Here is the input.
Amino acid sequence: MLKRLIAMALLLPLPAFADGSFPTWLDSFRIRAEADGISRLTFDAAFIGVTYDAKVVERDRNQSEFTKTIWDYLSTAVSDLRVRNGKAALRRQNEALRAIETKYGVDRYIIAAIWGLESAYGTFRGGDNVVRSMASLAYDPRRADFFEGQLLAALHILQSGDTVPAQLVGSWAGAMGHTQFMPISFLDHAVDWTGDGRRDIWGDDPRDALASAGAYLKANGWVTGQPWGVEIRIPKSFDFLLANRDIRKLPSEWATLGIVDTVGNAVTDYGAASVLLPAGADGAAFMIFDNFEVLESYNTADAYVIAVGHLADRIRGAGPLEGGWPTQDRALSYGERIELQEQLTSQGFDTQKIDAKIGPLTINAVRGWQVSQGLTPDGYASPGLLQRLRSTR
Here is the structure.
């Protein structure tokens, strides 16, 4: 009978409890956790002193308001200090990173760059209680299913003995350790590189975390020997409608259209590639390969992927990007991104979603509107473009 009741509980949707009923939610979650294989001992140890954290939920709800231009983001993410610290970190972990690269086929400079962006090479690993954060976010009805899955994964981490409740800490959003794994990603991809019987991504020794990042990227399709991307020069005669993630050509084919690297040479044929213009026709341009998409599995933001790739190149010894940026522009606010999508859709260029995310669908809608206005169809959603949209209503 108990098993039947548990099974029925698992099928029920999560209730949206009123404020102050976190203990009630926790009682119902305990049933689901035990049905998922979590012992009472693990559960009770994990939740000692855990209470609802309203600040975590508030941060999750408001993070969409935060925005930067790509050039502002890169100035911090790939600062000279971060490059110097990355070179020093690579020297310290050179033996391990080389061995990890050999085992997983993932460029050690890319792994070092992820380490640098995610925790400043282990300096800032986060100190928030992951169980408290995930429980608070799972209690909030907006994304309850996602965070309940992460919370269950966190409990499985504790039950497996990889760490103890006091050390299961991370960012306010639940990302953990040197390479900031979410609990589910940890369960799926973390490895015990040091051979001590634990997958320890939290401690001062970063090797388990670095190897776990390598295992994660390999599992997501990393192509050995292929770069993430290459900075390129675009000729004045370029048809900007070709700067589309769905249009892929070999670099040698792009070269026949006048697209070369910053030195003026054709890019090596590493594989099919597309042209990316993260800030439109007036910004730096990149030829991106399959490994760009692999890095998106870590973080979907183009700015993040470019930062990882460029930081890896800088640690390897490359110089700064050569292309400029339209620094006269500012980033669109959340409300402006919503308005942009609404304006485009109302004028016949459907963005498919009104979600404030300037992804491929919105970029294509921008391009369509630019073509209708006789403008350069680079897909760049700028404040100036929004102003022109307003004037053509």
Summary: The longest helix spans residues 144-160. The chain has a mean pLDDT of 93. Residues 229-316 form one domain. The longest strand covers residues 229-233.
